[in-house]
């Protein structure tokens, strides 16, 4: 029998598998995706948010624990478990040496990358390179890896893990039978339910306009996070945490593909202009705070607009101040022309932009700080970086909500154990997006998802190896045989 079964193939799962193997356990990792699509949402990431008290290799200045905590507290509006959040923060301070030992390389923050040179360590080659490095290290250490192997059911005895069930499936033109895979302990790291349209529909329901908002959501990440395992754990009585409508949801280019658009579809010029809905009206403060702390609220904001669509509008002055997205903006020499090209009502759109322009107050523009360029006498206000949109050509980018991962998950504590009626399972653990809601009740700040996955993946792997060792003792072995 295998010691530790890891279900999932992203950052958290790989961290768990590596830690369990380093602890001496035999490890089997099951990845639902084919090899070419391995890595879950982690393949689309770029960086890890890191606490540090002094400059460290690719990180400049300092980013102490209390500042990290205050940033997280602010973006979540207090909907976070402080004990677990601080655990993640502290773990982020010393994980990079371990990551390097497994082949991950870092580079300085990219120019225009959300002002993160102080707070975030960037992976050289991005998330795909990180995932590939971890898989190479896992295979070198003797971790067994199986692709095209989704898990549809978990077999429990009370709160104790017994086996995972894999459904019949076709792989490479061959029909494979159902399987029952036993292990002494298990780590669940199979992601959220963002690619399950039926579940998203169920969570978001219909709005007052009779629309099903979820029908218009795009998925920034993997198509394989269908939530089947999460739903099964909920049905089996695992304790849950989080609101099913809360997610890391970004405003992305409406022209992005349904799945796997990744970071290059994100629109990063929001704070440099205005955003209007399909009626040509502004609906939120575009300059509320630094973009790394606010970019992930805009998907949800757009989701509540008519048709779940918005438009980011800038002028010539904004060019060169943000990371350009993969699709070019629609350009026009007049606001009226831009409205026609974007399908917006010209009069309402021009009125919105002109009202904003008139409300802009003179100041010293500085996109690297919370400057004094703001609006007066208009709602919604723009708190910072408010420059009139008056220099052609003008540009417009259509927006849709892009779901990265959902926050409804399994409740846990510092042990990473799955809880049943408030009690820890002795041999079933959880990491990554399946438990991120313990730390992220709402909101997001750049790189913290990877911080959570790395911290709890490492904890879950270590704990799972220890649980497997206990179960391998003579007394536990007799118990297993008697109850199998």
Automatic annotation (TrEMBL):
Residues 3-440 form the FAD-dependent oxidoreductase 2 FAD-binding domain. Keywords: FAD, Flavoprotein, Oxidoreductase. It comes from the Bacteria. Its cofactor is FAD. InterPro entries: CobZ, FAD-dep_OxRdtase_2_FAD-bd, FAD-oxidoreductase_2, FAD/NAD-bd_sf, Succ_DH/fumarate_Rdtase_cat_sf. PANTHER family: FAD-DEPENDENT OXIDOREDUCTASE 2 FAD BINDING DOMAIN-CONTAINING PROTEIN, FUMARATE REDUCTASE. This is FAD-dependent tricarballylate dehydrogenase TcuA. It comes from Pseudomonas oryzicola. The lineage of its organism: Bacteria, Pseudomonadati, Pseudomonadota, Gammaproteobacteria, Pseudomonadales.
